[in-house]
Amino acid sequence: MTAAIYTRQSLDKTGEAAGVSRQLSECEDLAARQGLTVTTKLSDNDISATTGRVRPSFEKLLTLVEAGKISTVVVWHPDRLYRKLADLVRIVDIAKAHGLNIVSVQAGEIDLSTPSGRMVASMVGSVGSYEGEHRTERQRTAYSTRAAAGEWHFSHRPYGYERTAEGVVVVEEEAALLRDLYVRYYEGGESRHALVKGLNEAGTLTATGKPWSITALREVLNNPRYAGINSYKGVVVGTGNWAPIITPEQWELYKGAASKRKVLSSSFTRSATSLLSGIIRCDVCGGKVYRKARGDGSNSHEYACSVKVCVSASAAPVDALVRAEALSALLSGPSDLIPMDTNGATFSALSEALSELQQRRDDLTEALGEGLVKLAQVRPQLEAIKTDEEGLLQRRNDLTSANVIAEVLLDIKRNLFAGPTVSIDDAAAVKAQLAERFDGLTLPRQRELVSLLLDIRLAKGRGPKRVLIEHRVVTSLN
Ligand SMILES: [Zn+2]
Predict the structure, then answer these.
(1) How far apart are CA 124 and CA 387, in angstroms?
(2) InterPro entries in the record, alphabetically (predicted)?
(3) Ligand 1 centre distance from Cα of residue 112 (Å)
């Protein structure tokens, strides 16, 4: 039996495990133990087998197998030989036609002639974007380490700051404007819409040199780093080492004002009869858009601007479009974006638990009052209830001090995902289940969800393009 040893250097592994010389010597030992005659030693020195770059020695190896010169490949680990599904498929094809054994130091022998062997091959080779994933992980770690050290890592200049040789410094002119915006928002009660209008009328541009939009302004104002608060992925990790532009007190005032307005905007849902009536805004005049009968005897409905009837559109297609956007926001956002307390409990779950405790205490005191039990008998229980209650209240307070919007979203998510767990094996199945659950929500719940996730405006024109949708939470979808 003629064998080839194949080794590959890859940057993602520690030198200890992956050094080519170590791979080679361990493969030689294995070949000797199995009585294989090694006629060829091949090595590729690429960075990663998943980048799609051609590996010359790998290609040569396949040629040798096809020519019948090699019947066994010895590798340190199958992931040296293949990482991409495409590579595995080629090897399997050749193995079927010419016969090929793979023996590995780390994962034993792989028999590519049987389906189960091929399944094992695909598993032990970590077919997928293994190395790619690792790279992002490393990058994340690097970012979070920097964040923990109080540094601000940014690839695009944030408004109000720039990076110099001395570090991140304040751009005074922009800082003054920012302070003014914060105060006008939380003290003057001006809307983001009004602030954006003012900024653009004054010809002010964003840090990337564009006119301001509501999304751009929201992203700027929502950045806790202006108060010197360092955060990583939305989680506060400490104090930054740069000069703040507003005080922590101003930041709290801003956050308070912002969450109050959010709650107000989503609490008009009591008598809702359609998904979007009153939620959509007119892109022309900014007025509310309501749903009404077309009045042409067709029994169909439309969404129309309530102020000047600047815009109108058939209701059903708009509903369908918005539903799809809301679902994609749910699919690609909240699990990562929404803060959870350590037990994953939500505000309403904690409230429920609290009222259960209250109920138990009432039962006990009632029994006590009627002389059914003695105080000595129930005192331990009452004390236990008190301790539990304090713990729950503390956790609920912690949640309340977080974002109000996040709480509402958490509750919606809890309703949406109540019942059997969603299987994550299959992306299409997840989508279908999500849609089913969304459709199962009451109309007010759906409206709440939609207005939290999306900013919807109706513009002039025809077709789906006039429905302007901005994602509030999952801004990456915008
Ligand atoms: Zn209008």
Answers:
(1) 50
(2) DNA_bind_recomb_sf, DNA_bind_recombinase_dom, Resolv_N, Resolvase-like_N_sf, SSR_resolvase
(3) 67
**What CATH number did the domain enclosing 188 receive?**
3.90.1750.20
Ligand 1 centre to CA of 267 (Å) is 22
Helix axis angle, 85-98 relative to 115-124, nearest 10°? 150
Buried b (16+ CB within 10 A) or exposed e, 59-74: eebbebbeeeebbbbb
302 and 172, same structural domain? no
Q: Which residues does residue 230 pair with via DSSP β-bridges, in sequence order? A: 238
How many structural domains does the chain have?
4
CA of 446 to the centre of ligand 1 (A): 24
**Whether 327 and 190 share a structural domain:** no
- Residue-by-residue DSSP string for 333-386: SHHHHS---TT---HHHHHHHHHHHHHHHHHHHHHHHTTSS-HHHHHHHHHHHH
**467 C-alpha vs ligand 1 centroid, how far in Å?**
14
13 and 124 both lie in a single domain: yes
Contacts of 32 (CB under 8 A, 6+ apart): none
pLDDT value for 429: 62
448 belongs to a structural domain: yes
Question: What's the CA-to-centroid distance between 42 and ligand 1, angstroms?
Answer: 71
Same domain, 361 and 432: no
Q: Using the mean position of ligand 1's atoms as its centre, give its distance from the Cα of residue 313 in Å.
A: 12
Residues 430 and 312 in one domain: yes
On the question of pLDDT at 3 being above 60, the answer is yes
Residue 149 to residue 151: CA distance in whole angstroms: 6
Question: Are 322 and 218 members of one domain?
Answer: no
Residues 128 and 58 grouped into a single domain: yes
**Is 413's pLDDT higher than 60?**
no
C-alpha dihedral sign at 187, 191, 194, 197: positive
Task: Using the mean position of ligand 1's atoms as its centre, give its distance from the Cα of residue 194 in Å.
Answer: 17
Q: Distance, CA 306 to ligand 1 centroid (Å)?
A: 7
Tell me, in angstroms, the distance from the centre of ligand 1 to residue 189's CA: 23
Region 242-248: what's the mean pLDDT?
Answer: 90
Residue-range definition of the domain harbouring residue 395: 347-401
Q: What is the pLDDT of residues 65-120, one digit of tens each?
A: 999 899 899 998 877 887 665 577 678 778 778 878 888 887 777 777 665 566 56
Q: Distance, CA 268 to ligand 1 centroid (Å)?
A: 20
Separation of CA 218 and ligand 1 centre (Å)? 23
Q: Ligand 1 centroid to 200 CA: how many Å?
A: 21
